[in-house]
Design a protein that fits this description.
- This protein starts with a helix and ends with a strand.
- The chain contains three helices and four strands, in the order H-E-E-H-E-H-E.
- It is globular and about 30 Å long.
- The chain has a single domain (5-95), classed as Beta Polymerase, domain 2 (2-Layer Sandwich).
- With 97 residues, the protein is of the alpha+beta class.
- Residues 13-75 form the Polymerase nucleotidyl transferase domain.
Amino acid sequence: MRLSDEEKQAIVSVVASFDPAAEVYLFGSRVDDAKRGGDIDLLIYSGRMDRTVRRAIRRAILDRIGEQKLDIVTAKAPGHAAEPFIRLARQNAVRLT
């Protein structure tokens, strides 16, 4: 996983401040240590996420880790029927929380 401990802690802390029960996963190229570059792709499972909260989380994370490419995808819960993209993202995702 190509996130520093500080980046990981910042992400987990910010998301928990909005929803302590949320589950956060890293997916995409940052999961693969052999790859270079790439944005930070996060999948957040939470029943409390709407567009406004997602934007606030993104801004708070970037305030803590600095400007980087950051994409956030949200879903209700792991047990709910998921869209195909979310199922695909989850296949190689690494749980941060």
